């Protein structure tokens, strides 16, 4: 007759169900937060067939002109008059920038050209226009 039963035997199997639950929750969190990592403002971009190649080793400077003509540098609003001083300050840091200009499709593109003129006057020559 057996005195000890197998009821008290420790379980040696690895339970992977909690691990899968945690991994799925992390996946959902990353899927939700990844689109929020864009640095610029949301504008309705014009469409194009060409693609922009961006060097990943250079810092990106995103200038946005929204539908009202308001200018933003990486989501920070700035006036066209203050833009040259701000750009000169960035140039003095000595870091190379890829400048990306996003202009809303409903804005007068004279405003976008004015921003590009200020960029060139401040010494930024690697400028790209973003389209959809």
UniProtKB/TrEMBL annotation:
The chain crosses the membrane at residues 16-37. It is a single-pass membrane protein; Single-pass type II membrane protein. Keywords: Cell cycle, Cell division, Cell inner membrane, Cell membrane, Membrane, Protein transport, Transmembrane, Transmembrane helix, Transport. Its main location: membrane. GO terms for molecular function: transmembrane transporter activity. GO terms for cellular component: plasma membrane. It holds the Pfam family ExbD. One of its GO terms (biological process) is cell division. It is found in: Cell membrane. Signal peptide: none annotated. Belongs to the ExbD/TolR family. This is Biopolymer transport protein TolR. It comes from Desulfurispira natronophila.
